[in-house]
DNA sequence: AAGAAACTAATTGCACAAAAATAGTTTCCA
DNA sequence: TGGAAACTATTTTTGTGCAATTAGTTTCTT
């Protein structure tokens, strides 16, 4: 793995441990390299953060592309899978936490918002396809979107999963399952 | 309406206008009575708040009882209706806002938490009945609970409804619709 | 009995300064 | 070339005194 990517992955780790208040010294220590080396790759902390956001979302887009182009899947299967792609990446980095950067790093916040928003384009067009095919009910897509996003947030904010001894993957599958079955028309059963 | 109830209802109004930082002077002005009169009914602000929480949740319990005892409803119909009862009361008072009282009024916060938690007893036992009847899938109930609660929070936190020109009732119906259909077994279709 | 208004003790918000932490640079060394 | 550590300018945090606000009480009035 190239240095640039190692730094980004290390940033995720240190972000998940220390929260958004990690220092560049923390990161250097975590990576076992000196700050000097970090600054040979990135001009400053903000640029590094921005690169991290792109890195994360590019990974998501890649996974989505796989789902969309897989010829063996029906539209409903595609929706079921694609609804799990972005949430799965939450395991690497709690994107919701990035919202807390609003004040200190408005640029990063804006980028996260923009990419979270545009990240739904593929999903939305899949759902619209499903609606045209008649397999998906005519629901308000923003509400569905909100339900998924809100549920994910809760996984991290509260300790529901721990309390109920449910793994993240199980919970995610169940949420997606409920949502997908909830938007199907009867005819597929 | 008796004085006690008038004060509680007035507190809701003033709470919704001024937020949780309303003063007792605000409340007295809103009610058109003097603080003295308020203090003849309640010993202090905290007690009044606690009484308000009980008042609200007792109202919810009452509505729930109607749904549960209605002999004309199937279990699924009951679930569909009961899932709308608590959310409907959010229109009177944003219970989510009460969470912000955590620091200043920990007692009230604890009471809200406790009643929000125990407020699910009826719903949970209905869902369990549905599962025994075989009309509801064997899902993790805490996850369903979390999905509904998280969605409601979002209605207030973000301006999704306004942006998409959806009324609260429409959105609520849609959320409940998706959740209920999402937990049904196939056999009811 | 209840409202209006004044009153007080306590709490809160705020300005501002001192102290601590940190981003980014530089020096030295292997 | 890159790590360790020292360094500095800036930012963030913390503490404090002062002014404003407010919960709860009291007094006076109708």
Blueprint of the fold:
Two copies of one chain form a homodimer.
Chain A: H1 3-18, H2 24-31, H3 35-41, H4 45-69, H5 75-89, H6 95-98, H7 106-118, H8 121-133, H9 141-157, H10 160-163, H11 168-183
Helix pairs in contact in A: 1-2, 1-4, 4-5, 4-7, 5-8, 5-11, 9-11
Chain A binds a DNA duplex (30 and 30 nucleotides) through residues 23-25, 28, 32-37, 39-40, 44-45.
Compact overview of the structure:
The first copy, chain A, has 189 residues and is mainly α. Chain A has helices spanning 3-18, 24-31, 35-41, 45-69, 75-89, 95-98, 106-118, 121-133, 141-157, 160-163, 168-183. Chain A starts with a helix and ends in a 6-residue tail after the last helix.
Description:
2 copies of one chain form a homodimer. Chain A has helices spanning 3-18, 24-31, 35-41, 45-69, 75-89, 95-98, 106-118, 121-133, 141-157, 160-163, 168-183. Chain A folds into 2 domains: 1-42, Arc Repressor Mutant, subunit A; 59-188, Tetracycline Repressor, domain 2, CATH 1.10.357. Helix content of chain A is 73%, strand content 0%. Chain A is built from 11 helices and no strands. Chain A is an all-alpha fold and 189 residues long. The radius of gyration of chain A is 19 Å and the shape is elongated. The A-B interface holds A 137, 139-140, 142-144, 146-147, 149-151, 153-154, 158, 160, 163-164, 166, 170-171, 174-175, 177-184, 186, 189 and B 137, 139-140, 142-144, 146-147, 149-151, 153-154, 158, 160, 163-164, 166, 170-171, 174-175, 177-184, 186, 189. Chain A binds a DNA duplex (30 and 30 nucleotides) through residues 23-25, 28, 32-37, 39-40, 44-45.
């Amino acid at each position: 793995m190239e240095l640039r990517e190692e730094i980004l992955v290390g940033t995720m780790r240190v972000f998940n441990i220390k929260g958004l208040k990690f220092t560049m010294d923390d990161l250097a220590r975590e990576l076992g390299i000196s700050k000097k080396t970090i600054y040979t790759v990135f001009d400053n902390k903000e640029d590094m953060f921005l690169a991290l956001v792109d890195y994360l979302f590019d990974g998501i887009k890649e996974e989505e592309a796989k789902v969309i182009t897989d010829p063996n899947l029906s539209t409903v299967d595609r929706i079921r899978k694609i609804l799990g792609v972005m949430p799965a990446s939450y395991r690497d980095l709690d994107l919701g936490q990035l919202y807390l950067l609003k004040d200190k790093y408005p640029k990063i916040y804006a980028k996260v918002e923009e990419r979270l928003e545009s990240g739904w384009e593929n999903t939305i067009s899949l759902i619209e396809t499903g609606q045209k095919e008649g397999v998906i009910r005519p629901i308000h897509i923003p509400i569905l979107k909100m339900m998924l996003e809100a549920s994910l947030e809760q996984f991290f904010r509260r300790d529901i999963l721990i309390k109920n001894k449910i793994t993240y993957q199980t919970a995610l599958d169940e949420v997606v399952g409920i949502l997908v079955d909830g938007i199907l028309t009867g005819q597929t059963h």
